[in-house]
């Protein structure tokens, strides 16, 4: 198609060049016809009819030539227009074919790539890959469990150390309390804050006195009623 387009362009260029030559010849013949007509007028004005007649003959010859060139030029224009139209149509078809070619080429490349990907996926052992991922997951879980156990052991060790410190503090307080009791208490005396307990008989007498008071109060209220 490209060769045909080149040939059509060359033919169109040749026809256009020929048309240009015809236009120049037509313009020259028409100009000569007008010039000889003016000369005939000049000769007739001078009274020379024979010279005027010869000028008119020349004018007619150029006029006839101009008419023939005009007809040929009109025909040439039709040919040129047809060639230009066909050339543009061919250019459009070539461009369309080129676009389709590029599209088909891109589609073919995409299909080729898709085929390669499918083949690669088909060659992959899915079960083996999944097993590998499962083993990796188990390994990670084991490592996480070990890390948690180490953290727990470290935490228990720290708590034990603090427990020992707290126990030591209680023992120190107990020893200090013993020293205070040993140093400040006298024979026959109780430590500060402790009092002797009253005898049982005194306690009973105190309780009887209170009961008698409540009984007398009840009697008084009964008499009032």
Task: Give a quick precis of the structure.
It contains 4 helices and no strands.
Write the layout of secondary structure elements.
Layout: H1 2-45, H2 49-123, H3 126-184, H4 200-224
Account of the protein in words:
Belongs to the PspA/Vipp/IM30 family. It comes from Nicotiana tabacum. Residues 19-153 form a coiled coil. This is Probable membrane-associated 30 kDa protein, chloroplastic. The protein is mostly helical and 225 residues long. 90% of the residues lie in helices and 0% in strands. It has 4 helices and no strands. It has helices at residues 2-45, 49-123, 126-184, 200-224. Helix 1 (2-45) runs antiparallel to helix 2 (49-123). Residues 185-200 have low confidence and may be disordered.
Task: Count every helix, treating DSSP H or I runs of 4 or more residues as helices.
Answer: 4
Question: What's the number of structural domains?
Answer: 2
Instruction: Provide the β-strand percentage band.
Output: under 5%
SS-derived structural category = mainly alpha
- What are the segments in which pLDDT stays under 50 over at least 5 consecutive residues? 185-200
**pLDDT averaged over residues:** 76
Helix percent band:
over 70%
Q: How many runs of DSSP E, i.e. beta strands? A: 0
Global shape: elongated
Determine the N-to-C terminus distance. Answer: 143 Å
Q: What are the secondary-structure elements, in order, as H or E?
A: HHHH
Cα-based radius of gyration, to the nearest Å: 68 Å
Describe the biggest sheet? none
Organism: Nicotiana tabacum
Pfam families: PspA_IM30
Family: Belongs to the PspA/Vipp/IM30 family.
Keywords: Coiled coil
């Amino acid at each position: 198609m490209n060769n045909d387009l080149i040939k059509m362009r060359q033919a169109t260029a040749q026809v256009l060049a020929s048309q240009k030559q015809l236009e120049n010849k037509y313009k020259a013949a028409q100009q000569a016809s007008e010039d000889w007509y003016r000369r005939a007028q000049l000769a007739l004005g001078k009274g020379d009819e024979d010279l005027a007649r010869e000028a008119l003959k020349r004018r007619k010859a150029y006029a006839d030539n101009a008419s023939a060139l005009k007809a040929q030029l009109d025909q040439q224009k039709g040919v040129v227009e047809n060639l230009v139209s066909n050339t543009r149509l061919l250019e459009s078809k070539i461009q369309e074919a080129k676009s389709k070619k590029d599209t088909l080429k891109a589609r073919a490349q995409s299909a080729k790539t898709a085929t390669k990907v499918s083949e690669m996926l088909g060659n992959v052992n899915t079960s083996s890959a999944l097993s590998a991922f499962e083993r990796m997951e188990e390994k990670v879980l084991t490592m996480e469990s070990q890390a948690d156990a180490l953290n727990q052991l470290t935490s228990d060790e720290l708590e034990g150390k603090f427990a020992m410190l707290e126990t030591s503090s209680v023992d120190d307080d107990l020893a200090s309390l013993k020293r205070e009791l040993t140093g400040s208490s006298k024979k026959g005396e109780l430590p500060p804050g402790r009092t002797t307990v009253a005898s049982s008989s005194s306690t009973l007498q105190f309780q009887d006195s209170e009961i008698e008071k409540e009984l007398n109060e009840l009697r008084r209220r009964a008499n009032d009623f």
